[in-house]
Amino acid sequence: MSYAKVLSVGLIGMTGRLVEVEADLAPGLPAVVLSGLPDTTLNEARDRVRAAIVNSGQRWPNRRITVNLLPAPMPKHGSAFDLAIAVALLGGSGELPLFPLEQVVVLGELGLDGTVRPVRGVLPMVAAAAQAGIAQVVVPLANAAEAGVVPGVRVSAVDTLHRLVAFIRDDAPLLAPPAAVPDGPTIGPDLSEVAGQWLGRRALEVAAAGGHHLALLGPPGTGKTMLAERLPSILPTLDDEAALEVTALHSIAGQLPPSGRLLRRPPFQAPHHSATVAALVGGGTGLARPGALSLAHRGVLFLDEAPEFGKNALEALRQPLENGRVLLSRSRGGTEYPARVQLVLAANPCPCAKPAGDTYCECTPLARRRYLGRLSGPLLDRIDVRVTLDPIRAADLMSTGAEPESSAVVAKRVGQARDAAATRWAAWRWRVNADVPGPWLRRPPWRLPAHTTSALRQRLDSGSLSARGFDRVLRLAWTIADLDGRDRPDRDDVDEACQLRTGES
């Protein structure tokens, strides 16, 4: 027999597709030809696979070898096909009977000594195999826990090519996935640690309840970073669908913890202000990988010292914030990643950033305008909540009175508000108020009475509020009503929403 076929999986973005790894061995000068749109890493598999087979005690076939990856028009990336190529070669040379691998997906990178090394993206690959009706997968031992979270698939693990060969030839046992490690207690920043800043705490709670974007302005030491870092602590845990999405994204980026469990806590990403466009929204040669924006999917993207970020990086956020996804186009095709995040911006009011605020500021009015002007109007127009924090007073910092509310207390209110919104919008599958399109809130049965929105209409007519801002104030008003347990916003809710949107008192 000179032909063999083994199943594997290829990824384009988060979408997996079954790939048939074919090997044909024919008489002729010894050579290895790899076809099926392989990238550079995959082309180098020829040398890795040859060394791994020889160092595993198997015979290398000195014939003309053609390895084809089907479907041919689909670009193939990475080293996850190494193990499947090696087994297909041994099967085609007559060394192995491959019937034990019928309808079994094989994934793994090979070291030169025959060890099977972990690869990125195993979770979405196994999920794609399950959707295609595959009941068993063979994965590297280091990826077994990650693969095991996909229901309906039997996961077998290997640490060496020799072990897989022994399984195929002699029915030797493969390794079982490691036992799941129970989650420990969640320890992290807590809202009770924030002294004072009642306006900032209220803005954070409203943003969490409605999924709204947030901008925190103020001099250094006012608690902007402390508040932003505590936003994930008051967000609800991720449901199964969201947890699978988030975990798959971190798997593709190679950032999953060793336990391989589903990520249930909303992610928090805080890139440095020197981050490039590719680091922020995703990129890279070949298969474009997710950036900080997609790694914060269903969680928080925090840009500290936001005016210090590059203009192109900030402007690249505008479309993903509206669409909830990132499309990265390359010469060999496009890659799409989800990016539904809560954006939190923090900024000092001026370049000198005196801790005492405006009293001792050394900047001219023009310098102050230029500094905050680095945040473009179109970007700021997409920020729902904007608050300016004043310096903390000694009375707040040294208070011996009642301790501020903890994250657990605030999270309970946030959860109740989100449940109310989810129930209201269940028919349209919107999760939070920030997801609701503006036109829906401006027509029956959701349109608010004229006397409730009169001040808001005046701002729109005067030009101090854009049409997008008008809709965002309405969404904020619904969130405030949900937090306070009302079925519909009243005039006070709209007025508070307008203050949070404009930053005016």
Give a structural overview:
The protein has 505 residues and is of the alpha/beta class. The chain has 21 helices and 18 strands. A five-stranded parallel beta sheet has the order 11-14-17-10-18. A four-stranded mixed beta sheet has the order 1-2-4-3. Helix 7 (198-210) packs parallel to helix 17 (407-424). The radius of gyration is 27 Å and the shape is elongated. The chain starts with a strand and ends with a helix. The mean pLDDT is 91. GO terms for molecular function: ATP binding. Belongs to the Mg-chelatase subunits D/I family. ComM subfamily.
Based on the model shown, name its key terms.
Ribosomal Protein S5, domain 2, 18 strands, 3 domains, 4-stranded mixed β-sheet, Rossmann fold, 5-stranded parallel β-sheet, alpha/beta, 505 residues, 21 helices, 35% helix
In short:
It is built from 21 helices and 18 strands. With 505 residues, it is of the alpha/beta class. A hairpin with a 5-residue loop joins strand 6 and strand 7.
Topology:
Layout: E1 3-12, E2 15-26, E3 31-35, H1 40-43, H2 45-55, E4 64-70, H3 82-92, E5 104-106, E6 109-110, E7 116-117, H4 122-131, E8 136-140, H5 144-147, E9 154-158, H6 161-170, H7 198-210, E10 214-217, H8 224-229, H9 240-252, E11 268-269, H10 277-281, E12 282-283, E13 289-290, H11 292-295, E14 300-303, H12 311-315, H13 318-323, E15 325-330, E16 333-338, E17 342-347, H14 365-372, H15 377-380, E18 385-388, H16 394-397, H17 407-424, H18 438-441, H19 454-462, H20 467-483, H21 491-502
Helix pairs in contact: 2-3, 7-17, 7-20, 17-20, 20-21
Organism: Micromonospora polyrhachis
GO molecular function, one term: ATP binding
InterPro entries: AAA+_ATPase, CHLI-like, Mg_chelat-rel, Mg_chelat-rel_C, Mg_chelatse_chII-like_cat_dom, P-loop_NTPase, Ribosomal_Su5_D2-typ_SF, Ribsml_uS5_D2-typ_fold_subgr
